[in-house]
Write a structure and sequence with these properties.
The protein is mainly α. The protein has a domain at about 25-50. The chain has 3 helices and no strands. Helix 1 packs across helix 2 (about 25-50). The termini are far apart. The mean pLDDT is about 80.
């Protein structure tokens, strides 16, 4: 329907609309929260991979 591809102009339009809706301060807080969430998710996945050892290693 949309071609499945976002270019620079489309991203700029989305950012402009987000600025109008949320305002600059709320948008900064939203970005900070999103970044922290991604960082926590990656660390949880990394810890999960460490804990998931094969049964042969436990013997």
């Amino acid at each position: 329907m949309f071609g499945g591809k976002l270019g620079i102009p489309e991203l700029l339009v989305i950012l402009g609309i987000a600025l109008l809706v949320f305002g600059p301060s709320k948008l900064a807080d939203l970005g900070k929260g999103l970044g922290e969430g991604i960082k926590n998710f990656k660390s949880a996945v990394k810890d999960g991979e460490k804990d998931a050892t094969p049964e042969a290693d436990k013997k």
